Amino acid sequence: MNINTQQTLRPHAEVAYKKELEALIQIDDRQKPSGWNLSPWAVVTYLLGGKLVNGVEIEPKYFGSRRLIEVAVATLATDRALLLIGIPGTGKTWVAEHLAAAISGKSTLLVQGTAGMSEDSMRYGWNYAKLLAEGPSPDALTASPIMRAMLDGKMARVEELTRIPSDVQDTLITLLSEKTLPIPELNTEVQAQKGFNVIATANNRDKGVNELSSALRRRFNTVVLPLPATLAEEINIVKTRVDKIGRSLELPADAPPVKEIHRLVTIFRELRQGKTEDGKTKIKSPSSTLSTAEAISVINSGQALAAHFGDGLLKADDLAAGITGAIIKDPIQDKTVWEEYLETVVKERKDWKDLYRACKELL
Question: pLDDT-derived band of residue 249, with 50, 70 and 90 as boundaries?
Fold first, then answer.
């Protein structure tokens, strides 16, 4: 099948950043673990950016602690799997995808965790037409993404590990400890090739989480991805991602609206922390997480409104709808929290009157 990558809505990391990866491979003369495309140093450089390599600028993929990324990469160079934990919107999936792309050149060996998944998704399944015709055979076996990663010596990704039923989670124990996948129907096993490892993500705010068994947790080295530490850092993240996504969606808008991003991020941070940025006023927090990813989504939605139904400039009216939808998840509790915040904080701020009026009209 021929696919026009220029028309792909969201190219995989190894496609979108192909030039950067190729440039790093050309100059990377440091020691590489077996099966890796890049050295640990080059992987960290790819994630954090900031270098001009052979005329190609390495764009930052993650804004945060360098040490956290170094720990994550060093973990994958050992026999321990990596577990990225954090609240929704802290970039766990984003980091996992780019780690797999940089290390293996392939980020698509992915198992998406759900509450109803079976062991087949972790291990292997069967082509039932061939199974009925021929009985159990290698040709009738359907490899899972993890099994393919073991055979090829690549990084496998498991998303939302704690949403997976506990008995299915534990199928990973043998894979991670023995680096083998038994296939009793064929009286054989698959042994992992050098370069194989697992990058898993988990949301520590999800209701109905299936806790990991102590045996499985020991197979992972856990790295917690925090929310941005400062207002300026979070504004920079939102601005960078909004600009990137806006170009990919071909939104006919000007440069990212720094003023509106500043106001939105300030609101999200204050409601998350339960106090204003200056620490003088305590406020109630809503039930929603109000993550950086949600802030990016609100700005992009506002830009789409401004571009298609306005004059192209993001204004308070365009921002208000997205803010209200992001904050009010519980129509009773969250609405009360938001109304109180509008009256006690937003209304009193200089140059925020337009946003106050726009938000009040939607309540």
Answer: low
Highest averaged pLDDT of the listed ranges 16-20, 133-137, 248-252: 16-20
Q: How far apart are CA 327 and CA 270, in angstroms?
A: 12
Whole-structure pTM value: 0.89
pLDDT digits (tens, 9 = 90+) for 1-30: 445 556 777 889 999 999 999 999 999 999
Which residues form the domain of 253? 231-361
- For residues 25 and 165, state if they share a domain: yes
CATH of the domain at 103: 3.40.50.300
Clarify whether residues 194 and 260 are in a common domain: no
For residues 247 and 139, membership in a common domain is answered with no
